[in-house]
Amino acid sequence: MKIAIGSDHRGLDLKAGLIEPLTNQGHRVEDIGAFDSTSVDYPDIAAVVGRLCQSGDIDRGILICGTGIGMSIAANRFSGVRAAVCHDRRSAELSRLHNDANVLCLSADLVSSSDNEAIAALWFDTGFDAGRHQRRIEKIEHASQPMP
């Protein structure tokens, strides 16, 4: 699976800690930045991952900031992106099962690194339980299309 991972300056350490395990699991991981502790604007990072996801150049993405909320708001501006903030294992599981989330947004400030690693592992291991949920995903995508 091809994954793009990006963070702002606050998520730098967590991002670095996730890259190796994902690579060791056989994923191709593209690091979008930030690359040092210099302050960056999270919408810039989210836009890169959002565009890569929208174009199909990646299968999934991970975005990290202080809470994960700003990254999810910015990423969800892109058609085809279903970015979910997950602060625990259950929300990660349900974001995949019910919402087919393709971008995982994590909190560097509110959740421990070890919990975030467990959240990410479960998120990647969980499939989409299409069924009745597929119709809802299609409605979300239809609602995000420009009006004629």
What is the element layout, followed by pairings?
Blueprint (H helix, E strand, L loop, with lengths): L1 E6 L4 H13 L3 E6 L8 H14 L4 E6 L3 H7 L7 E3 L3 H9 L5 E5 L5 H13 L4 H14 L5
Parallel strand pairs: 1-2, 1-3, 3-5, 4-5
Helix pairs in contact: 2-3, 4-5
Short description:
Helices cover 47% and strands 18% of the residues. The protein has 148 residues and is an alpha/beta fold.
What does this structure look like?
This protein is an alpha/beta fold. It has one domain: Sugar-phosphate isomerase, RpiB/LacA/LacB (Ribose 5-phosphate Isomerase B, Chain: A). Helix content is 47%, strand content 18%. It is built from six helices and five strands; from the N terminus they run βαβαβαβαβαα. It has helices at 12-24, 42-55, 69-75, 89-97, 113-125, 130-143, and strands at residues 2-7, 28-33, 60-65, 83-85, 103-107. It has a five-stranded parallel sheet, with helices on both faces. Helix 2 crosses helix 3 and helix 4 (89-97) runs parallel beside helix 5 (113-125). It is globular and about 40 Å long. The protein starts with a strand and ends in a 5-residue tail after the last helix. The mean pLDDT is 93.
Key attributes of the depicted protein:
6 helices; alpha/beta; 148 residues
